[in-house]
Design brief:
Layout (H helix, E strand, L loop, with lengths): L9 E5 L4 H17 L3 E5 L4 H7 L5 E4 L2 E5 L4 H10 L1
Parallel strand pairs: 1-2
Antiparallel strand pairs: 1-3, 3-4
Helix pairs in contact: 1-3
Length: 85
């Protein structure tokens, strides 16, 4: 997708003021703390191409450079994806 996908194992495309984004970020932070992986938050409003791509789907979660989820994060599913990789 963008260079951001290479910054961490899990990428959460998000925006400020989004309650689903805040909840997803908290769940991602908890899961990666357990697995020892890293994650990064990318504000889609800071980049027009990301805003156009994800505006109606945030938060969008990528794992290992591939889209994993959008709107909500299932902690068990994320944990499984991280342990498979």
């Amino acid at each position: 997708m963008t260079a951001h996908a290479n910054d961490a194992r899990v990428v959460v495309y998000s925006r400020d003021g989004c309650h689903l984004c805040e909840a997803a970020e908290q769940l991602v932070a908890q899961v990666v703390a357990e697995t020892g992986d890293d994650w990064v938050r990318v504000d889609i409003d800071a980049e027009p191409e990301l805003k156009q791509a994800f505006t109606d789907q945030v938060p969008v979660t990528f794992v290992d450079g591939r889209q994993h989820d959008f709107w909500r994060v299932d902690p068990a599913r994320l944990r499984a994806a991280l342990t498979r990789g």
